[in-house]
Backbone:
């Protein structure tokens, strides 16, 4: 049985043992949520939710074979490869997101890793969004040190690179990139001074043991990810996981709560799959320590709840969007 009083103190640790994570999952639901709430309140206002918006700046045609992804060139999902979005379109989308309460704008491109000419255009996008006073995030595949440093110099704050699942289950989902390569990219990102955004996906046929192993991997990185997106699989026709079974909503909430306890100072984000979540399920996730959402019509290529529905749910729960960071506010004022 874990020492809940010690855990509720919210000390940030990177030395968690896998058995400790398993013990957290085994707690009675009420004890788990109470402990997660205690940890959450040590670092965050429980009535605030950080809002991010994700835009696909280059859609489809990805050479990777991720079994969940409609953008993979390996599958016929009706998503065609497209050219990169024009800079003006990206800036307009960021301005709209900002006007609707988003404080972070994430740009995603369907690549294994960016080529030099692609990276140059991405840097322009990052600089332009940075100038608006928003936090910037990008997800572009694998990076080397030089690429990561150039993105940081352009004004990038966060880099998203999910581990997706446990190391043991990973080969069942992806064969074109190793788990080690994912961890190496995370280290490159940290070494370049960027903040890490890293999480996983539930509902791909994995077991509760895989959830424990995945969260253990995240919580024992040299530094916890600043943001931990927890996705519920969106089953897309044409992908190998189109007929995957659904995740028990209470199990999903458990994963959120354990993530909050293990990484108390991180933003834990409800990401893909929210369109299929009831208001009650999302409310339980917030109670369990989720304090960030992706907001907007789409998450890359899949549906997301209407932004007005999101704001109405937050109002009903007595919650509100988190204010911009001091750094972002200073950038906006300077601009």
Residues:
């Amino acid at each position: 049985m874990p020492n809940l009083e010690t855990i509720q103190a919210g000390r940030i640790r990177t030395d968690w043992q896998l058995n400790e994570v398993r013990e957290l999952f085994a707690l009675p639901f009420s004890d788990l949520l109470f402990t997660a709430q205690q940890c959450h309140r040590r670092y965050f206002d429980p009535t605030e939710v950080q809002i991010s918006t994700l835009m696909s700046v280059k859609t489809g045609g990805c050479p990777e074979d991720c079994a969940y992804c409609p953008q993979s060139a390996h599958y016929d999902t009706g998503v065609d490869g497209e050219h990169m979005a024009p800079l003006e379109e990206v800036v307009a989308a960021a301005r709209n997101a900002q006007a609707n309460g988003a404080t972070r704008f994430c740009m995603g491109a369907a690549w294994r890793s960016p080529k030099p000419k692609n990276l140059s255009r991405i840097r322009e996008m990052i600089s332009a969004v940075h100038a608006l006073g928003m936090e910037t995030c990008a997800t572009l595949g694998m990076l080397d040190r030089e690429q990561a440093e150039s993105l940081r110099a352009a004004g990038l704050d966060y880099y998203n690179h999910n581990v997706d699942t446990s190391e043991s289950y990973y080969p069942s989902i992806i064969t074109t990139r190793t788990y080690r390569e994912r961890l190496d990219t995370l280290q490159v990102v940290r070494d370049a001074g960027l903040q890490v955004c890293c999480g996983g996906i539930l509902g791909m046929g994995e077991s509760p043991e895989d959830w424990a192993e995945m969260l253990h991997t995240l919580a024992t990185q040299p530094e916890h990810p600043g943001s931990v997106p927890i996705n519920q699989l969106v089953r897309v026709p044409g992908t190998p996981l189109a007929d995957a079974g659904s995740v028990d909503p209470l199990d999903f909430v458990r994963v959120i709560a354990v993530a909050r306890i293990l990484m108390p100072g991180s933003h834990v984000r409800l990401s893909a799959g929210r369109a299929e979540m009831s208001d009650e399920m999302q409310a339980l996730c917030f109670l369990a320590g989720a304090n960030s959402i992706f907001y907007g019509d789409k998450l890359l290529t899949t549906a997301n709840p209407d932004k007005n529905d999101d704001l109405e749910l937050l109002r009903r729960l007595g919650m509100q969007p988190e204010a911009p960071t001091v750094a972002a506010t200073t950038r906006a004022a300077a601009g």
Remarks:
- The chain is about 40% helix and 15% strand.
- The chain has one domain: 43-334.
- Residues 116-131 form the longest helix (16 residues).
- Residues 166 and 211 are 7 Å apart (CA to CA).
